[in-house]
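Our consortium's second objective concerns turning raw sequence data into structural hypotheses that experimental partners can test. To show how far this objective has progressed, the report includes one record in full. It was chosen at random from the queue rather than selected for favorable results. The single chain below, 177 residues long, was entered without modification.
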Amino acid sequence: MKLTIVGRQMNVRNDLKELVEKKLAKFDRFFADNTSATVTFSRQKNKECLEITILSSGTIFRSEKKDVTFNCALDQCMDSIERQIRKNKTRLERRLREGAFVPENFEYAASDVEEETTFDMIRVKEFDIKPLSTEEAILQMNLLGHQFFVFKDSHTEETCVVYNRADGGYGLIVPKK
């Protein structure tokens, strides 16, 4: 796995880099050698924030945790990504390394709201829209931990959006013809 460690407005200590390398080596049994991982360290509101993003065969695994120490946040991120893999293992089986899923690989009120008159754009993201089935788009959304996901439907070639509904289900937004 190709690892990139980033410190946002901070320098990452060598002992933290070594710990991250050691912990992420645990995922080598799930992913092929061409997998890339980015670990971002930052401090936000007196908390240590750690974000791990793993890109493997077009599938993104992501976890972001805040805690009092980077070590605790790292452990939580590792658990979160392993849960994502375990939760979606049957769907991911053909995308990950062969034999990745052997058992020994796993451990463990409106009236008082002020109306917003202007919308300040805080962040703009650009990404490639790939043709996916609706099920693959929902899987990708869940792996990213987002509330919605934009994709191109592989059958209709239309740009669509899947989203998490408040009732626990999923929704699909398709363009009107």
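The partners drew two points from this record. The chain has two domains: 2-97, 126-173. The chain has four helices and eight strands. Both points have been shared with the crystallography group to help prioritize constructs.
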